[in-house]
Amino acid sequence: MSSDLPPTRWEGPSDIGRGYGRHFAELIAGGADVEGEARLADALAPRGARILDAGSGMGRIGAALRRVGHQAVGVDLDEALIEQSRATYPDLPVARARLEALDAAFFAAQGMPTEYDLVVCVGNVMVLLAEGSERAVLRAFGDLLAPGGRILVGFSLTGAPPRSRVYPAEEFAADVTAAGLAVESRYATFDLRPFDPDADFAVWVLAAEVSDH
Predict the structure, then answer these.
(1) Could you tell me which residues are beta bridge partners of residue 116?
(2) From residue 5, how far is each of 89, 110, 161, 210 by CA, in Å?
(3) Which of 38, 53, 74, 167 has the highest count of CB atoms within 10 angstroms of its CB?
(4) What's the pTM?
């Protein structure tokens, strides 16, 4: 891992990853529905798609996508969550990486696809990135897209998770444009409730910006 990158908001004096992993493990054990994001991702992708779960955590989304036939892989920064993911979902390939450092060479070295039909970045990953890295992360996602590929993003607009930033919808839209991407659609929830700028959560579908030439 590159030492010249600033720490992410996920990293800090207290380990929020263990609590996150325990929380979802308990939800799954109790039979809770934790795959709403995966159902939307499945609908956005062609059959057997190459899907990157960026910030894959304990692996619940990538594993759900593999179960329905997609070539899903995950990347995450948190070693403890990667360990939990591999133990819980051994069929899901996971690698450790900073999202702004992702490129085709990294995935080739991991034996993973070097371009993707869909990049999924949910679970409030965008509001826990390193300060000022949002555009670099979005550019990295865009550079990994196969022709016609899309990006699914969802995060809290109010800074709900511990140590996360407040990321207003209009600021995110400006970062999307600056990263050479376009907003294809946006919603309030993963079950596609209409977007509400006053809501506390937003879901976006992004695509590569189409040139007029």
Answers:
(1) 145
(2) 29, 21, 22, 31
(3) 53
(4) 0.88
Structure tokens at 123: 């679970």
3-state SS, residue 33: coil
Residue 45: C-alpha distances to residues 52, 140, 142 (Å):
11, 19, 16
Q: Which domains does the chain have, with CATH numbers?
A: 34-208 (3.40.50.150)
C-alpha 107/C-alpha 47 separation (Å) is 21
- Cα dihedral value 47, 154, 27, 163, nearest 10: 150
Work out whether strand 181-187 and strand 201-208 pair parallel, antiparallel, or are unpaired. antiparallel
| Token pair in block for residue 83 | 């360990």
Distance CA 47, CA 141 (A): 21
Per-residue pLDDT of the chain (213 residues; tens, 9 = 90+): 445 778 877 676 555 555 555 655 665 566 555 577 999 999 999 999 999 999 999 999 999 999 999 999 999 999 989 999 999 999 999 999 999 999 999 999 999 999 999 999 998 999 999 999 999 999 999 999 999 999 999 999 987 777 889 999 999 999 999 999 999 999 999 999 999 888 899 999 999 986 554
CA dist 58 and 101 (Å) reads 21
